Amino acid sequence: MTRDIAVVAFAQSDILRTTEEQSEVEMLMPVLHDVLDRTGLKTADIGFTCSGSCDYLAGRAFSFTLALDGVGAWPPISESHVETDGAWALYEAWTKLLSGDADTALVYSYGKSSPGSVRDVLTRQLDPYYVAPLWPDSVALAALQAQALIDAGDTDEPALAGIGTRSRATDNTRAQLRGSVPQGDYVVRPLRTGDCPPIGDGAAAVVLAAGERARELCSRPAWIRGIDHRIEAHGLGVRDLTDSPSTRLAAEKAGAFERPVDTAELHAPFSSQEVVLRKALRLDENVRVNPSGGALAANPMMAAGLIRIGEAAARIHRGESDRALAHATSGPCLQQNLVAVLEGDPR
Amino acid sequence: MPEVLKAPLVVEFPFTRSLGPVQSAFLTGLRDRVVLGVRTGDGRTLVPPVEYDPVTAEEIRDLVEVAPTGTVTTWAWNHEPRRGQPLSSPFAWVLVRLDGADTALLHALDAPGPDAVHTGLRVRVRWAEDRVGAITDIACFEPYDGDPAQPTGHSGEFEDPVTGIVAAARLDYTYSPGRAQTAYINALADHRAVGERCPSCRKVYVPPRGACPTCGVATAEQVEVGPAGTVTTFCIVNIKAKNLDIEVPYVYAHIALDGADLALHGRIGGIPYDQVRMGLRVEPVWTDGGRYPDHYRPTGEPDADYETYKELL
Ligand SMILES: [Zn+2]
């Protein structure tokens, strides 16, 4: 038996450069209340809870266990956690609902990058034998990919600047960077500050529901028609950095190529990565890409991917989209990629 | 609202990692100024080598030497090197396909400026003076306009192979405990203990974390608790912790402060370790200038009745 599963609510915090006055749970709780209020559910009504976060960002061990205070984890609840972006927590919750073990799921994720230096922190996710001892930071690795794209004739620096400008021309009031943002100096050439995501703290939450439950909780559910995630070789020098076969394969398995989408929320923290993703996903000019501003406007680590799914779903809820694609990434140079296809009921 | 507390926090870890046969050969080779790759079933040579074919997942062990010269396949100019990176003056990050290899190796290129670097640039390895069997035995690459170097014909067998590496890491943070715990820590410095009451279930949490774990709602109402409390449960610590100036054995206990609905933990002093018991009444002891209780000692009151603290176990 297959069940139809939908995103029925989405909430996110303001994404801010720092939230030092708040602990993780203090930052998270308003978002959890917001998303539950949108459905009328209480924490005790939720069948399964799954979260995404990463202790390395804030240097706080087992921080997800403290965040559980925000979901009322006593008496005991059915709960799980992924040490990566919340988009993967949503994937786990989706499989849980597919199995019939639960009818509703709360998915949340959060990241506080402000306590540390995120460029250095992210070096610790690299191959510890050959790469991490060199401390290549996240911008440096993205810059290698950007240069490969320029050499291949896929883009140039003015085109990259255009992606940054378009992303920040968003009316998303939650975004960290909006309006006219200078392209700035090189961070690691060929990438300038305008090609790189802002560093910020934030949280997001989504409620999933199955079948009729979804229709009860939301007037226009965003049905998940397909979702898949794929990974590529960890060795950067093994990969063709100008392409993203893992994104293409995930999209194919999620059914993205069966019919055109009208909207795409892409998790491309660097302008150059949007070039790669547009190519891998065969998105043409008819598709609205990142109306929310995407990761170039706000990139709270571990929440930015879940926000892409949430933003895509929210557009369907509001009737602004009928078929949307959402993408999340993790790892250097788009190493891991998740694609979800969401649809509203026909109008 | 008073300012939240902040303090530097350094996380350091020297991960000791063992190497499999392929990684061991590669890193031992670097120590001996030899670059080894590994051949896949379909004849490609991967440098740096891996133990499993990234396409087929087949185990691969066929070591093959490649040249210490090669070609830049992509690059990025790093004008502000960061801590731990291979060079401290501006350099280019490069992926280099060594002569004889089919894949590229990430490293640094020492060049005078970005105008001296391009994809396709010919480069060679600059060896580190002191080599230990690590990727940093390659100090960096440098531009090179000679002929491709010839491999030495090395078999990949070594007399005294490197079998492990120590991957040292250090990350610097500015730690902040947030609003609720800042209030708690500041009160402790005044020799007071404050918790927060849940607006829904009325339980008082000490230390407060800003949320009720039962109701999932924010807590804000401050409540003074203690100073005395009851030992709800305890353990006897027999192993001396590094940098901790406390004689073993000692007792570490859960203590329910009077008025609190959650037990905190602390060390019990002023009583022989083998006389500590559930129900023991204790009070905090501050040392001169201490911002938090050094330990808890018996108050001398009769033990608390089990019924009064069983819910807090
Ligand atoms: Zn409560």
TrEMBL record, chain A:
<dbReference type="InterPro" id="IPR002155">
    <property type="entry name" value="Thiolase"/>
</dbReference>
<dbReference type="GO" id="GO:0016747">
    <property type="term" value="F:acyltransferase activity, transferring groups other than amino-acyl groups"/>
</dbReference>
<dbReference type="InterPro" id="IPR016039">
    <property type="entry name" value="Thiolase-like"/>
</dbReference>
<protein>
    <submittedName>
        <fullName>Lipid-transfer protein</fullName>
    </submittedName>
</protein>
Automatic annotation (TrEMBL), chain B:
<dbReference type="InterPro" id="IPR012340">
    <property type="entry name" value="NA-bd_OB-fold"/>
</dbReference>
<feature type="domain" description="ChsH2 C-terminal OB-fold">
    <location>
        <begin position="64"/>
        <end position="127"/>
    </location>
</feature>
<keyword id="KW-0238">DNA-binding</keyword>
<feature type="domain" description="ChsH2 C-terminal OB-fold">
    <location>
        <begin position="223"/>
        <end position="286"/>
    </location>
</feature>
<dbReference type="InterPro" id="IPR002878">
    <property type="entry name" value="ChsH2_C"/>
</dbReference>
<dbReference type="InterPro" id="IPR022002">
    <property type="entry name" value="ChsH2_Znr"/>
</dbReference>
<dbReference type="Pfam" id="PF12172">
    <property type="entry name" value="zf-ChsH2"/>
</dbReference>
<feature type="domain" description="ChsH2 rubredoxin-like zinc ribbon">
    <location>
        <begin position="187"/>
        <end position="217"/>
    </location>
</feature>
<protein>
    <submittedName>
        <fullName>DNA-binding protein</fullName>
    </submittedName>
</protein>
<dbReference type="InterPro" id="IPR052513">
    <property type="entry name" value="Thioester_dehydratase-like"/>
</dbReference>
<dbReference type="GO" id="GO:0003677">
    <property type="term" value="F:DNA binding"/>
</dbReference>
<dbReference type="Pfam" id="PF01796">
    <property type="entry name" value="OB_ChsH2_C"/>
</dbReference>
